[in-house]
Write a structure and sequence with these properties.
Number of helices: 1
CATH topology: Immunoglobulin-like
Order of helices and strands: HEEEEEEEEEEEEEEEEEEEE
Strand content: over 45%
Oligomer: single chain
Keywords: Signal
Protein name: Peptidase family M1 possible nickel uptake system protein
Structural class: mainly beta
Helix content: under 10%
Distance between the termini: 32 Å
Organism: Flavobacterium aquidurense
Largest sheet: 9 strands, mixed
């Protein structure tokens, strides 16, 4: 309880000073890695700190964070907007797959309020494989300005290397710092290579989260308030069997 209280105080301090170095909270998607045609697939959106399993109750999400956009892109590139419902600790949505292949779930939200002199821009994604087909298993399915993708996500297993590619403005995000978080909270920071790629070998089974944050030094106005930079973050779920 004491640890969570201290984290809450740290988060409130961020709201006052808006420092991207201090800000660790993220929006992320969780869903089962596989789905079945004709059966509803649950999508959950959480806010908090994945590494500590520190989940912020849906009723306490700041500003207009709850107004995120959530879409599912089918293997044949059909895009469907989903409506999410608030539960105690998350927002929940469903879709029903109707074809074999890899579905991409993408979330995006640019926060209405400017904190200090910074705009916050959240992005998240995950993939769902239906059947044995690999149609749709491509980075281009996610059109968010900042994104992560792994072809290996559909077959990720313990002790087998997983490659993850990062993109920013439809270009490879080379020489950028990423973070991999294991199901038990273990973290590893990695730098992408010239191809915008990192790799890691999962030791434990379960959900891994990859995070990529980038601060764009640009000035402007957002909802009538001036800003000097835009903090953009992407999160990506990989389920290891």
């Amino acid at each position: 309880m004491k640890s969570k209280t201290l984290k809450s105080i740290a988060f409130l301090l961020f709201m006052l000073v808006a420092s991207p170095q201090l800000f660790a909270h993220a929006l992320w998607i969780e869903t089962k890695a596989t789905g079945t045609k004709g059966k509803a697939q649950e999508i959950s959106v959480f806010f908090g700190e994945f590494s500590d399993n520190d989940i912020t109750p849906a009723s306490k999400w700041f500003s207009d964070l709850k107004d995120f956009t959530l879409v599912v892109i089918s293997p044949s590139k059909k895009e469907t907007k989903l409506t999410a419902t608030a539960l105690e600790n998350k927002y929940q949505a469903f879709f029903t797959p109707d074809e074999d292949g890899v579905y991409t779930i993408a979330m995006h939200h640019k926060v209405k309020d400017v904190y200090g002199t910074m705009v916050l821009d959240y992005n998240s994604s995950a993939t769902v494989t239906v059947g044995n087909a690999v149609k749709g298993n491509e980075a281009a399915a996610n059109t968010n300005i900042i994104s992560l993708f792994s072809k290996d996500a559909t077959t990720a297993k313990q002790k087998a290397k997983v490659n993850v590619n990062a993109s920013y403005e439809a270009k490879v995000a080379k020489e950028q710092k990423m973070k991999v978080i294991a199901p038990n909270g273990w973290e590893k920071e990695l730098w992408s290579n010239e191809n915008g790629e990192i790799s890691f070998t999962p030791i434990w089974p379960g959900n891994y989260m990859v995070e990529f944050a980038y601060t764009e030094k640009t000035a402007g106005e957002h909802n009538g308030k001036k800003y000097d930079e835009i903090w953009k973050m992407a999160t990506y779920l990989i389920t290891v069997k």
